[in-house]
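Trying the structure run again after the queue cleared.
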Amino acid sequence: MKRPLSPLSNQQGSVMVIALMILVVVTIVGIASMNDSRTEQQLVRNEAIYKQDFYLAESAAIEGAQRLNNLNDRWVLQNQAQPWLNQNEDNTGVNLTDPGNWDTGGATPNAAVAGVDVAGDGTYTVVDERTADDGSLNPNSPQVHEFRVLGQYFPAGRNNPILIEIGYRKQF
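Done. Tokens:
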């Protein structure tokens, strides 16, 4: 006599179902790992671009400091005869922390183009803040002036410029 087969006692094909479930779980984990990897690559790429832009702005500021360091003519320094050498922004009304005020052309430019890259998107300017507190009161003796040296790099195709500001003291 034949016994009727019960669907619960029939386990043929259960290995295939378990294998398919494991394969689905591994596939989902693999896809999630690929998405995480892609996001991490984009983060690394953005960080590298930001560092490059930062160093270009810093090199523009250093170029401005070097040009200031090379100026030894007291008359030029006191009268801000160079287009990139500005009086304190309170006297001129020009806010140089606003990238829109960095006019590098025209009759009275506020900044000079730095030789930091081929595109010429790096600029610098120097702001004469004041005579340093430890300077001499004698007008004929050399005085120490405090300057703000600002370097800016405006990356092509992006809306946000990078602005670096460093302090500099010079005796003249």
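Residues 146 and 169 are 5 Å apart (CA to CA). Worth checking whether this holds up in the mutant runs.
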